Amino acid sequence: xxxxxxxxxxxxxxxxxxNPLRLxxxxxxxxxxxxxVTLVEDAPDMVMAWTASSLTEARDKLHRSPxxxxxxxxxxxxxxxxxxxxxxxxxxxxxxxxxxSAKEDQSYPERAAACGARGFIPKExxxxxxxxxxxxxxxxxxxxxx
Length: 146
Prior knowledge:
The protein is an alpha/beta fold.
């Protein structure tokens, strides 16, 4: 009498990433920075490079540790994200920047594109949309609302 055993597929553990995406977030609201930290913790191909609550703090961190991807709020206590994006892209022209805002202003996507950002997303967007935007920009596409 022979007993047949079913073979279970062997699954290898995930390989550690050699170059995960280093994301940085500049936003004056701790809860928004926290959402991004949580998003990155749940993404196997990303790590949080740093967060900043002001442009002054962001400028310092950018010079010490440039990220692979920057998420930039429009309204900050010491300036605006559009001007800062233009300033940073003059120094780091290949840095992908996604601008976010809670304010509903129809001119923001156009202003984001004009300052060199690769995308704009409102803060009321879903996490799925946010992930889509980051992924699209990392793949070389732009992400602006239709």
